[in-house]
Amino acid sequence: MKKTNKEKAFRYERKFVVEGMYNRELESMIKLHPAHFREIFHERIVNNIYFDTTQFKYYRENVDGNASRVKVRIRWYGDLFGQVEKPVLEYKIKSALMGRKESFKLAPFQLDQGFSMRAIKEMVQTSDIPEEIKVHFYHLQPVLLNRYSRKYYLSADQNYRITIDQGLEYYSIRPNNNFFISKFKDPPATIVELKYASDVDNGANELSTLFPFRMTKSSKYVNGVDRFFGSTI
């Protein structure tokens, strides 16, 4: 298995929560923006399994607002359950408002009641990824499964990208013996993310002010963990 290209350069990521707005109204607002955003990719379903330590180290880093923090997940697109054909192990590394990803292709696996963290660890250990990633991942456990639909937009100057995430669903997941009965939906939530390179940050300030959305540090991962684990962490 060959790893995907690393996104070595940090980029800015501004996140906004959209409330009280119909989908068509939101999309029209983005398309009519002076930056002339256009849809660049077909809408698709994003699936993630998030991993953390037994002490929820990465969750705590996010909640505490640490400037430097990490999220570890396996991501794929399309159907949630069944044979996962093209999974990718992602390390999302954040520094304040900036972030980058290191991504590694994995072998296919099955997500159903027979899901086993042992099998996932064996798959990672036999994949063509750096040894330090294998060692690090070996000590993690699955914590959360989520999915949502995503649309993609790009500005006319190609400097700014926007994604719209809707229809968020969350499932509790354990190292084994999963029936995926414990779940919840957050249909009213719509998350808009503005992503761009550091050298065009000045233009992003003006661009953002034209959206009537409130900027947030809210994390899908944190929201899901809060829902399933609450004050037990």
Task: Jot down its keywords.
233 residues, alpha+beta, eight-stranded antiparallel barrel, 12 strands, globular
Structure, described:
This protein has 233 residues and is an alpha+beta fold. It has a domain at 7-19 and 46-147 and 172-177 and 194-232. Helices cover 22% and strands 43% of the residues. The chain is built from 6 helices and 12 strands. The chain has helices spanning 23-31, 57-63, 117-125, 131-138, 201-209, 220-229; strands at 7-18, 38-52, 68-77, 82-84, 88-95, 98-105, 109-111, 141-154, 160-172, 183-186, 190-197, 214-215. An 8-stranded antiparallel barrel has the order 1-6-5-3-2-8-9-11, surrounded by 4 helices. A hairpin with a 5-residue loop joins strand 8 (141-154) and strand 9. The longest helix is centred in the last third of the chain and has 10 residues, at 220-229. The protein starts with 6 loop residues before the first strand and ends with a helix.
Provide a compact summary of the structure.
The protein has 233 residues and is of the alpha+beta class. The chain has helices at residues 23-31, 57-63, 117-125, 131-138, 201-209, 220-229, and strands spanning 7-18, 38-52, 68-77, 82-84, 88-95, 98-105, 109-111, 141-154, 160-172, 183-186, 190-197, 214-215.
